[in-house]
Specification:
With 290 residues, the chain is α/β, with parallel strands linked by helices. The chain has ten helices and 13 strands. A hairpin with a 3-residue loop joins β3 and β4. The structure holds ligand LUC3G6IP. Ligand LUC3G6IP binds next to β9, α9 and α10.
Length: 290
């Protein structure tokens, strides 16, 4: 992941650190683990760029780095907003790494699912303004990342799609994926889309309200910066309290049922029938390629 921004440097152990201007002021801080880059310039707006080829799958390692990056930004008082995008052409994120859910131990599934929960709790509950610049396809967990942001701008290419397609894999979107979806598009659209496991091409996603606007791909980052400026023009405390008011019930629900949710996931994913569905899905992906 690639994360970039400016302001007070508070992170980056072992990575490239802060550039110092002659007056000793930080010019920018570039922090990156291997899977994303992060930069925070003077504007106080960080840019986080996923860079985990081939398709930015959300592996345990990726999720861990994502959560740590979010925590570092959240704790950096100079950082007020983050734009999330991808360095890979055509892919924002392919969602959860299916190989993390196939043929592994119960302990591994537990650790993996806790990391998925942690990422979502941090992103959905963030005090920062979060804007997703969706520059490619974004199925399932990738859609969750985008939906957890405050605003979604997608490249207008109809070949790019977004949605919670879990049902197509023979699995079920967990209740907090569903809650996030309902909060974005409303109950009816969420119900139909979830039951069918629909992946919506960008224009349809826009019509449904799953993304807030479409722009030509080359204008995506420029537009994301403009939207960010608009959101940051308001006092932080008022915006943050409002955001909390809108999202708290859904966040609290997972916090209250976190261990139960992990148990459900581990039991569900360990079933031979589910393992078989996931293996078949992976085989289908490989065949589609050849
Ligand atoms: C009773 C209640 C109990 C509750 C229990 C809850 C259980 C719920 C559990 C989990 C929720 C799941 C969430 C998810 O996110 S699952 C993941 C869903 N993702 C997808 O369906 C996307 C699949 N991928 C694609 O459609 C395409 O790859 C693409 C559109 C993203 C990119 O297409 P393209 O550029 O053509 O690339 P390839 O298809 O050729 O892929 C390249 C390479 O990457 C592998 N790959 C793709 N996606 C994934 C993935 N998500 N995880 C792991 N690996 C992936 C693909 O197989 C190729 O591999 P290669 O052949 O070895 O090169």
């Amino acid at each position: 992941m690639l994360l970039s921004g400016s302001g007070k440097p508070q992170f980056g152990e072992g990575n490239r650190e802060v550039g110092e201007a002659p007056l000793g002021r930080p010019v920018w801080a570039a922090v990156g683990g291997s899977l994303m880059s992060l930069c925070l310039p003077f504007t106080g707006v960080a840019t986080m760029k996923f860079k985990s080829p081939p398709v930015n799958s959300l592996s345990l390692e990726f999720l861990t780095e994502f959560s740590i990056s979010l925590e570092k930004l959240e704790n950096n008082r100079a950082c007020r907003g983050v734009i999330i995008t991808s360095t890979l052409p055509k892919i924002f994120s392919s969602g959860l790494d299916i190989t993390e859910m196939c043929g592994k131990s119960m302990e591994h599934y537990t650790e993996f699912w806790r990391a998925v929960q942690e990422m979502w709790l941090r992103l959905y509950g963030s005090n920062m303004v979060t804007v997703a610049a969706v520059n490619g396809s974004s199925p399932a967990g990738g859609c969750l990342v985008a939906m957890s942001c405050d605003y979604r701008i997608m490249a207008e290419n109809p070949k790019f799609s977004i949605g919670l397609n879990e049902a197509q894999l023979g699995i079920v979107a967990p209740f907090w994926f569903k809650d996030t979806f309902v909060n974005v598009v409303g109950h009816r659209i969420a119900e139909r889309s979830l039951q069918l496991g629909s992946l919506h091409p960008a224009p349809e996603a826009h019509k449904l309200g799953l993304v807030d606007e479409l722009v030509p791909e080359e204008k995506l980052m420029e537009r994301a910066a403009a939207v960010m400026a608009q959101w940051l023009a308001l006092p932080d405390h008022a915006r943050q309290l409002t955001k909390t008011m809108m999202r708290k019930a859904v966040l609290d629900r997972l916090v209250a049922h976190r261990e139960e949710d992990i148990k459900n996931f581990v039991t569900f994913v360990s079933k031979e029938s589910i393992q078989k569905s996931l293996r078949m899905y992976m085989e289908m992906l490989k065949k589609r390629k050849s």
